[in-house]
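Appendix B. Chain record.
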Amino acid sequence: MAREPAPLNWKSFILLLILALGLGSLYRFTDLAKKPMHTDEAILALKTHEYAKSRTFEYDPKDYHGPFLHHAADLIGKWRGWDPTAMDEGELRWVVAIFGLGLVLLPLLLIDGLGRTGAVVAALLAAVSPMLNYYSRYYIMEVPFVFQTGLFIASLWRWSQKRNFLWLLLAGLCLGFMHATKETFVLNLAAMAAAWGLVSLRIGSFEPRNARLSYAGARPTIPDWLAWLIVAGVAAATSVWMFSNGFKDWQGVHDSIVTYDSYLRRSGGSGHEKPWHYYLQLMTWRKDGFVWSEALIPALALIGMLDALLDKRRVSNVRAFLVFLSLYGVFLLAIYSIIPYKTPWSVMAVQYTFVLLAGLGMRRLFRAVQMPLFKTVLIILFGTGIYHLCSQTNLATDYSFPGATRYAADSRNPYVYSHTTTNLLALSKRIHELAARHPAGKSTPVQIIQAEHGWPLPWYLRDLTQVGYQDQIPAKLEAPIIVTDKARGEEILAKLEGEYISSDYGLRPGVMLSLLVEKHLWEAYLNPELPAVPPVKAELVVEEEVAPPLPATLPVLPPGEATNSTELAAPAPSDSSLSPFPVSLGPTGPLPVNLSPALARPTEPALGDAPVRQAEPVPEIPPEGESTPQPKRSKRSRQ
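Structure tokens predicted for this chain:
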């Protein structure tokens, strides 16, 4: 029998781990704020601000996820010295990036299963994976959820090896956090249960054979049934505490259970139907202008799976764990592939499991190659693969373009999914510039009339205090700044009195907006010497110093009935609760000027559930000094 090669020495291990941490930090924390906010990010960001102000989380069982991310942002924000009620894009994404970096360190807890080589290779792959890096820069639930799932598995493994009670507590905390983060954690538990059941029947336990041998002075071990009871109890207490706002409001706990009825109905697709092989293609090969491929990871993972299944020389408890990890990854991928509803970030738990198994696969290759020349060739090939993943991460995250957004919001990027166009940032900037020229300043009336309430515009316009969001065209329109769907621009122009300047902007691929600006305000924007409002309206303008702008502290409110109403939220003192009241926006009446913004929620489920439309060209905004939009007269002004 050939002699087993020596394991990776500790000096090389530490150097490679430092390299992994350096690359992981570089890709995750650099230039976090430059990419425009996705709709999901914007909604979660405003809900985080609400939670930080009210200290109460209201769970919506139909459209949104649990409270964990908001708690994490509040805690980490305070730790960094930030104000959680006003954290910006970069600060909020920094919270998720911390969990993303945690994925680089997690393999260390599995070092006695993966080996030193396997653990450090897994850390390197987690550091440079384009998918893991891209979503580590996204203020959404998925990366924290993947970290919690990985830590849950690692904690159970460490408990089985050392029988230390603290690992049971950590496993219980992770399980409770998983439920408080994403309701789909039940799919991960189902895959784990199936894998554990098969491994228990065919191979055996994760415990070393001498784990329960007693000796003088040894502490009594906890029986398995009690260990599982402890994990379940800690998980239940953690989840209930988060959903009930500290054991105060039990409606959230009830809703966290009944939400699965909604999830079952939406699993059919809800506009996100994809073929069964969508995730396989996403992880291996996609050509859209560029060739995108992370095939190195699943290829090495396949070698790792075969090694776990076929190498019977390995200690039985280690083999049992590695086979469990292999089956868990395969079962979870099968579950997600069968479900018609698919979004690219949903498969990250599978991707990370494959990263761990890829470390095992690379370890097997190193051990199989004995000749120094061949081992050098193998190292060069692996280094080339790491370089390839780095080059794709450079493009996917726009690390190659400091201060600019090139591919991070481009539909050719396989990880971009119905993302906000960079053109929307120009629209937000233009609205703020126009408001600055209006006598009312940040109290300038603005109307957003769009089927999905213009998300993520409520995030970008959160500092303007007189913004109303409507999904239907009201009978009367008087705001000097109006944003609407391009298709409804002419209809709205027909209802307006006077002249308005129209220009087009992109919201998302296939969704175009029109910005309508009152002519006097537009001309004043171009020429500061001109008045921003007609003389007849000047005396009606509420000056900013008379009515100081109110902070946008309002919650994301449920949409109104499909008939003629929505809800506008009244401003409330910081020490009082926020309560909405209805305002008619039906056949009569313009947007009331003296009301603070109604942050109305989209009528369709918001978090990843807006139907994806085909891309169409997004117009570029002409630089200053070039041709400007031409005025369009309403029908009334032409009469």
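Further analysis of this model is presented in Appendix C.
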